[in-house]
Specification:
The protein is of the alpha/beta class. The N and C termini lie far apart (35 Å). The protein has a single domain, classed as Rossmann fold (3-Layer(aba) Sandwich). It has 6 helices and 7 strands; from the N terminus they run H-H-E-H-E-H-E-E-H-E-H-E-E. Strand 4, helix 5 and strand 5 form a beta-alpha-beta unit. Strands 3-2-1-4-5-7-6 form a 7-stranded mixed sheet.
Protein backbone atom coordinates (compact mmCIF):
# COMPACT_ATOMS: atom_id res chain seq x y z
CA UNK A 1 0.00 0.00 0.00
CA UNK A 2 2.85 2.41 0.70
CA UNK A 3 3.93 2.13 -2.94
CA UNK A 4 0.37 2.97 -4.02
CA UNK A 5 0.32 6.15 -1.90
CA UNK A 6 3.85 7.18 -2.86
CA UNK A 7 2.86 6.91 -6.50
CA UNK A 8 -0.38 8.86 -6.01
CA UNK A 9 1.29 11.62 -4.02
CA UNK A 10 4.16 11.67 -6.48
CA UNK A 11 1.84 12.96 -9.19
CA UNK A 12 1.83 16.61 -10.21
CA UNK A 13 -0.33 18.84 -8.04
CA UNK A 14 -2.31 17.83 -4.96
CA UNK A 15 -4.29 14.60 -5.26
CA UNK A 16 -7.13 15.79 -2.98
CA UNK A 17 -6.80 19.51 -3.60
CA UNK A 18 -5.58 22.35 -1.40
CA UNK A 19 -8.87 23.06 0.39
CA UNK A 20 -9.80 21.47 3.73
CA UNK A 21 -12.43 18.79 4.02
CA UNK A 22 -15.82 20.54 4.07
CA UNK A 23 -17.07 18.76 7.19
CA UNK A 24 -13.86 19.60 9.06
CA UNK A 25 -14.20 23.26 8.09
CA UNK A 26 -17.74 23.25 9.53
CA UNK A 27 -16.83 21.70 12.89
CA UNK A 28 -13.31 22.98 13.64
CA UNK A 29 -14.78 25.46 16.12
CA UNK A 30 -15.31 22.43 18.39
CA UNK A 31 -11.58 22.65 19.17
CA UNK A 32 -10.25 25.08 21.78
CA UNK A 33 -8.63 28.11 20.15
CA UNK A 34 -4.90 27.62 19.70
CA UNK A 35 -5.18 23.96 20.69
CA UNK A 36 -2.81 21.14 19.78
CA UNK A 37 -4.16 18.96 16.97
CA UNK A 38 -3.01 15.61 15.62
CA UNK A 39 -4.03 15.03 12.00
CA UNK A 40 -3.63 11.36 11.10
CA UNK A 41 -3.08 10.25 7.51
CA UNK A 42 -3.20 13.82 6.21
CA UNK A 43 -1.61 12.98 2.86
CA UNK A 44 -0.29 16.20 1.33
CA UNK A 45 -1.48 18.31 4.25
CA UNK A 46 -4.64 20.06 3.06
CA UNK A 47 -6.35 19.74 6.46
CA UNK A 48 -3.26 20.32 8.59
CA UNK A 49 -2.23 23.45 6.70
CA UNK A 50 -5.74 24.89 6.95
CA UNK A 51 -5.85 24.21 10.70
CA UNK A 52 -2.41 25.80 11.15
CA UNK A 53 -3.66 28.90 9.33
CA UNK A 54 -6.46 29.01 11.92
CA UNK A 55 -3.88 29.29 14.67
CA UNK A 56 -3.80 25.70 15.89
CA UNK A 57 -0.58 23.87 16.77
CA UNK A 58 -0.60 21.01 14.25
CA UNK A 59 1.15 17.66 14.02
CA UNK A 60 0.53 15.63 10.85
CA UNK A 61 1.43 11.94 10.57
CA UNK A 62 1.50 9.97 7.33
CA UNK A 63 3.43 6.87 6.33
CA UNK A 64 4.19 8.03 2.80
CA UNK A 65 7.53 9.91 2.68
CA UNK A 66 6.40 11.52 -0.58
CA UNK A 67 3.28 12.86 1.18
CA UNK A 68 5.26 14.19 4.14
CA UNK A 69 7.61 16.12 1.83
CA UNK A 70 4.53 17.66 0.20
CA UNK A 71 3.12 18.60 3.62
CA UNK A 72 6.38 20.39 4.43
CA UNK A 73 6.39 22.22 1.08
CA UNK A 74 2.71 23.14 1.33
CA UNK A 75 3.21 24.45 4.88
CA UNK A 76 6.22 26.51 3.85
CA UNK A 77 4.36 28.00 0.88
CA UNK A 78 1.47 28.82 3.21
CA UNK A 79 3.75 30.45 5.83
CA UNK A 80 2.68 28.12 8.64
CA UNK A 81 4.56 25.74 10.90
CA UNK A 82 3.57 22.07 10.99
CA UNK A 83 5.26 19.18 12.74
CA UNK A 84 5.18 16.65 9.87
CA UNK A 85 6.07 13.08 10.86
CA UNK A 86 6.64 10.16 8.51
CA UNK A 87 5.61 7.03 10.39
CA UNK A 88 3.57 3.86 10.10
CA UNK A 89 0.88 4.40 12.72
CA UNK A 90 1.08 0.71 13.67
CA UNK A 91 4.69 1.20 14.80
CA UNK A 92 4.63 4.86 15.81
CA UNK A 93 5.05 5.66 19.48
CA UNK A 94 1.82 7.59 19.90
CA UNK A 95 1.95 10.51 22.35
CA UNK A 96 -0.32 10.04 25.36
CA UNK A 97 -2.70 12.75 26.62
CA UNK A 98 -1.03 15.43 24.50
CA UNK A 99 -3.67 16.71 22.08
CA UNK A 100 -6.82 18.81 22.25
CA UNK A 101 -8.13 17.11 19.11
CA UNK A 102 -7.44 14.27 16.71
CA UNK A 103 -8.61 14.79 13.13
CA UNK A 104 -9.16 11.70 10.98
CA UNK A 105 -10.44 12.40 7.46
CA UNK A 106 -10.84 9.35 5.18
CA UNK A 107 -8.32 7.27 7.10
CA UNK A 108 -9.28 3.61 6.75
CA UNK A 109 -7.22 1.16 8.77
CA UNK A 110 -7.25 -2.59 8.00
CA UNK A 111 -9.74 -4.55 10.15
CA UNK A 112 -7.06 -6.33 12.20
CA UNK A 113 -5.57 -3.07 13.51
CA UNK A 114 -8.48 -0.62 13.20
CA UNK A 115 -9.90 -0.82 16.74
CA UNK A 116 -6.45 -0.68 18.32
CA UNK A 117 -5.42 2.40 16.34
CA UNK A 118 -8.73 4.11 17.07
CA UNK A 119 -7.99 3.53 20.75
CA UNK A 120 -4.53 5.08 20.27
CA UNK A 121 -6.31 8.19 19.00
CA UNK A 122 -8.33 8.29 22.21
CA UNK A 123 -5.24 7.72 24.36
CA UNK A 124 -3.43 10.63 22.66
CA UNK A 125 -6.14 13.09 23.75
CA UNK A 126 -6.15 15.21 26.85
CA UNK A 127 -9.26 15.00 29.02
CA UNK A 128 -11.96 16.94 27.18
CA UNK A 129 -10.19 16.47 23.84
CA UNK A 130 -12.20 15.76 20.70
CA UNK A 131 -12.03 13.31 17.82
CA UNK A 132 -13.32 14.76 14.54
CA UNK A 133 -13.84 12.12 11.87
CA UNK A 134 -15.24 11.68 8.40
CA UNK A 135 -14.84 8.39 6.54
CA UNK A 136 -16.58 6.32 3.92
CA UNK A 137 -19.31 4.01 5.13
CA UNK A 138 -20.14 0.60 3.73
CA UNK A 139 -22.56 1.99 1.13
CA UNK A 140 -19.60 3.67 -0.60
CA UNK A 141 -19.17 0.55 -2.77
CA UNK A 142 -22.19 1.84 -4.74
CA UNK A 143 -20.31 5.02 -5.65
CA UNK A 144 -17.21 5.92 -7.67
CA UNK A 145 -15.99 8.92 -5.67
CA UNK A 146 -13.04 7.32 -3.88
CA UNK A 147 -12.25 5.18 -0.87
CA UNK A 148 -11.04 1.61 -0.50
CA UNK A 149 -12.98 -0.76 -2.79
CA UNK A 150 -13.10 -3.39 -0.04
CA UNK A 151 -16.12 -3.76 2.26
CA UNK A 152 -14.02 -4.70 5.29
CA UNK A 153 -12.09 -1.42 5.08
CA UNK A 154 -15.22 0.73 5.15
CA UNK A 155 -16.87 1.95 8.36
CA UNK A 156 -20.35 1.98 9.86
CA UNK A 157 -21.94 3.91 12.71
CA UNK A 158 -22.22 0.69 14.73
CA UNK A 159 -18.51 -0.08 14.22
CA UNK A 160 -17.42 3.39 15.30
CA UNK A 161 -19.67 3.37 18.35
CA UNK A 162 -18.00 0.12 19.39
CA UNK A 163 -14.43 1.31 18.66
CA UNK A 164 -15.02 4.58 20.53
CA UNK A 165 -17.14 3.22 23.39
CA UNK A 166 -14.72 4.73 25.93
CA UNK A 167 -15.55 8.31 24.86
CA UNK A 168 -18.74 10.36 24.63
CA UNK A 169 -20.19 10.42 21.11
CA UNK A 170 -21.46 13.96 20.64
CA UNK A 171 -22.54 13.54 17.03
CA UNK A 172 -22.76 10.63 14.60
CA UNK A 173 -24.44 10.41 11.22
CA UNK A 174 -24.34 8.44 8.00
CA UNK A 175 -25.33 10.28 4.84
CA UNK A 176 -24.59 10.79 1.15
CA UNK A 177 -22.71 13.99 0.35
CA UNK A 178 -21.27 15.48 -2.81
CA UNK A 179 -17.47 15.44 -2.76
CA UNK A 180 -15.28 17.86 -4.67
CA UNK A 181 -11.80 17.24 -3.27
CA UNK A 182 -9.06 17.26 -5.89
CA UNK A 183 -9.24 14.66 -8.65
CA UNK A 184 -9.74 11.54 -6.53
CA UNK A 185 -12.77 12.48 -4.40
CA UNK A 186 -15.39 13.70 -6.86
CA UNK A 187 -19.10 12.87 -6.91
CA UNK A 188 -21.63 11.48 -4.47
CA UNK A 189 -20.09 9.65 -1.53
CA UNK A 190 -21.55 7.63 1.37
CA UNK A 191 -19.92 8.90 4.55
CA UNK A 192 -20.05 8.48 8.29
CA UNK A 193 -19.27 11.55 10.42
CA UNK A 194 -18.43 11.60 14.10
CA UNK A 195 -17.56 14.06 16.84
CA UNK A 196 -16.51 12.42 20.11
CA UNK A 197 -15.14 13.78 23.38
CA UNK A 198 -12.79 12.12 25.85
CA UNK A 199 -14.22 12.04 29.36
Amino acid sequence: MKDFWNERYGEEGLAYGDKPNVYLSEIADQISAGGKILVVGDGEGRNGVWLAKKGFEVTCVDYSPVAVKKIESFAEESNVNINAICADMNDWEWPVEQFDAVVSIYVHFPPDVRAGLHQKMVDSLKSGGKILMEAFNKDQLKYKSGGPPVLEMLFSEEMLREDFSSVDILSMEEKVVYLDEGKYHVGDGAVVRMIAEKK
